[in-house]
Amino acid sequence: MLFLFAVPALTITIAEALGYSTILVASGYVAKTAYDSASDRDGGFERQGESRAKAAADFQLSQFEKAVKELRADENMYFNVILAVATVGYAYAASYGEVSDDMRNYIDDFVAGQGAEHLPPGFRQGLNELLTSPPNVELAYASAMALAPNAIVHCNTIIELLAERFEGSTSLTAQEFVSNWNQLKAAA
What we know:
This protein is an all-alpha fold. Helices cover 74% and strands 0% of the residues. It has helices spanning 8-40, 50-73, 77-94, 101-112, 121-132, 137-147, 152-165, 172-187. The two termini are 21 Å apart.
């Protein structure tokens, strides 16, 4: 994983986060086991509709297993997207001056939803380190592109939402941030 700025706590936390995918795989196994035991109990399903019900359950299980495999293919993507969007959000918020608690909460809610407070502690610590010295627009853009280039639309969205939310306090620096951000996107 490439980080364009030093956040040592994140590398440990991402390793912890890999355990979450194990939970998903285990829950898939539990669901399959429950399905198998239900079909074996009392002589199986009733004959009428048995084939359709089993086919539907098998299809749902295969879709779930496929989704888990896709998640496991790039286990870090979730955290890369959160980190990329948070980096851009914090950088934009810093263009207003000091990042207020309201701005930070707004960014955290956007990037991780209601589960922001449940992010692994090391990852949360890395985000806190970003807040102490947020990157400039160039570094935020380069970091976002290195971490999750497919998340650039989310980075644009956080900038737009913060601009709308805090429009009464728009500073010249915030306007410059947006202008520089748009130039960097156009040059890519």
